[in-house]
Amino acid sequence: MTKKPYELLVPEYSSTQSYYDTWESRIGYYTLLGGTRHFGYYDPGTLWPFPLSTALRRMEDHLYESLDLPPGSKVLDAGCGVGHVALHLADKGLNVEAIDITPNHALWAQQEVERRGMQDKVRAQWGDYHKLEFDSQSFDGAYTMETLVHSSDPAKAVSEIYRVLKPGGHIVFHEYDHIDATKPPPDCPPDLVEAVVRVNTRSGMPGNQLFDRGVLQRIMEEQGFVDITSRDLTQNMRPLMRLFYVIAYFPYLLICFLGLQAWFVNTEGGVQGYRALRRGYWRYMVLTARKPGKLDREGSGEVDGVRHRG
């Protein structure tokens, strides 16, 4: 009998899927973030990061505002995690087709959609943003929320997203970028850069390794997007990154003493990621753009109207 997608471990994405399946990831994401898999949005200079849920929803509100689409618009969530972002945008009136390369994420997201009775607004399923199973010009908008970092071929993924957008369709990428690893800032020691590269590898983020400053914008331009804008939200997400550092610091010392870094990638990422952030090595960026043409601003119906290829 043919297995359903969520029962499969896809070989080319095994590092990403394995990362999210570790007990450290499962416990960490649910204990700290309630299952959400992205950073929160704070006013710059915020010292007290709680409640975390408020900051997480504020980041999703920022995404919604950046999409700049009317209620009823169809959007693609290209890497939905357990569905929190898609559901939040649906609450604001958008119709969301959500995909994720990690089988359990897609399954849990759809279960949450059904639990909330929002099947007419959101549909979640297993999918690969390098090979989207949707007809061309199917969506009014699309977005990633810190998921393009997992891409093995960002140019291919951006090309596919461009294909499925209608003329005039909007795109928003919430992603990280960094200084060229071969030219780190003077106060960013080589061992710190090596640690960041190690975290990228162990957490299945080959795209992040490729995202030197300006690379994603150049990819967008090459694929045909216009009116590209970028905004640096590093100071807005920094309070949550600092919290991760505080929580992880002493456990990380013990982990290093025992030589167990390979088993605690989030702990190492919390410490080394914040150290690198303070030294200006990496940033949290939001890039927006549109596909050339004119978009119908009246919205375009329910999510079930999205056509699949095949």
Largest sheet: 7 strands, mixed
Helix content: 40-55%
Tally of DSSP β-strands:
7
Mean pLDDT: 92
Estimated structural class? alpha/beta
First and last CA, distance: 21 Å
Topology:
Blueprint: H1 14-21, H2 23-33, H3 52-67, E1 74-78, H4 84-91, E2 95-100, H5 103-115, E3 122-126, E4 139-145, H6 154-164, E5 165-178, H7 190-202, H8 206-210, H9 215-223, E6 226-232, H10 234-258, H11 265-278, E7 282-290
Parallel strand pairs: 1-2, 1-4, 2-3, 4-5
Antiparallel strand pairs: 5-7, 6-7
Helix pairs in contact: 6-9, 7-11, 10-11
Q: How would you sum up this structure, described in words?
A:
There is one protein chain. The chain is of the alpha/beta class and 310 residues long. Helices cover 43% and strands 17% of the residues. It contains 11 helices and 7 strands. It has helices spanning 14-21, 23-33, 52-67, 84-91, 103-115, 154-164, 190-202, 206-210, 215-223, 234-258, 265-278, and strands spanning 74-78, 95-100, 122-126, 139-145, 165-178, 226-232, 282-290. The protein has a 7-stranded mixed beta sheet with strand order 3-2-1-4-5-7-6, with helices on both faces. β2, α5 and β3 form a beta-alpha-beta unit. α7 crosses α11 (265-278) and α10 (234-258) crosses α11 (265-278). The chain starts with 13 loop residues before the first helix and ends in a 20-residue tail after the last strand.
